[in-house]
Design brief:
By secondary structure, this protein is an all-alpha fold. The chain has one domain. The chain has 7 helices and no strands. α3 runs antiparallel to α5 and α5 runs antiparallel to α6.
């Protein structure tokens, strides 16, 4: 098993996604606060948040692949959790757009008894998947820490960002949300640079694997 399972295109795409995603998340939070009604309440913030959630899902692939050689089973489980959690992030940001535009809080209506008949089933479009996003940061940080795929401080910050995420966002505490996004930006940018730095190693490994074994004349090796 090689120390680096990433191909050059995958390292590049996921590396850029890891750098872009937290920046978009921070910009989304700023847009929610300055141009909307607060966290998860605003059209611009929700739009940028959708892009951030998609980028986080892409980045999670590269992050889990970094840890895969030393923890293949754990990496697979964390990958599934991350994809589900960040996909759910899209739904929450679209809900934020509707709240900003029409003053309709669909999730609160569905979970608070304001919906009629069987409409409560719609709550499962958000839950429990929304809780998986912060859990994903914690799990990816733990995974990277245990496999030593990145510097320990980077893995620790990523896990800390997950804890802060679930502390500040549901309660819509603006300062804590911004602090969370800054912590995640520092961690994910460092991981993104690590992924981009892996490109050259990956090329070398791929080239070595693809080189034919030289043969002597007569067909003998």
């Amino acid at each position: 098993m090689t120390d680096n399972p990433l191909t050059r295109p995958l390292a590049r795409v996921t590396g850029f996604a890891a750098i872009l995603a937290p920046v978009l998340l921070l910009l989304s939070s700023i847009a929610y606060i300055t141009g909307g009604g607060g966290i998860n309440d605003g059209v611009l913030g929700g739009t940028v948040g959708v892009w951030s959630a998609i980028a986080l899902a892409v980045a999670s692939v590269g992050i889990c692949r970094l840890a895969e050689p030393r923890a293949p089973r754990a990496a697979a489980v964390v990958q599934v959790v991350a994809l589900a959690g960040f996909t759910a992030g899209v739904a929450f940001n679209v809900q934020g757009m509707y709240l900003g535009k029409y003053d309709l809080d669909l999730l609160t209506d569905l979970t608070g008894g304001a919906s009629e008949g069987s409409e409560w089933i719609g709550a499962f479009a958000f839950l429990p998947w929304g809780w998986l996003a912060p859990l994903s940061f914690v799990l990816m940080g733990w995974l990277l820490w245990n496999t030593r795929a990145v510097a320990p401080w980077t893995a620790g910050l990523l896990a800390l960002g997950g804890v802060l995420f679930v502390t500040g966002r549901p309660a819509r505490i603006d300062t804590l949300v911004i602090a969370t996004d800054v912590v995640l930006t520092i961690a994910l940018v460092a991981i993104g640079l690590r992924l981009l730095g892996n490109q050259q190693n990956t090329i070398g490994q791929s080239a070595s694997a693809a080189e034919p074994v030289p043969t002597k004349r007569g067909g003998r090796r």
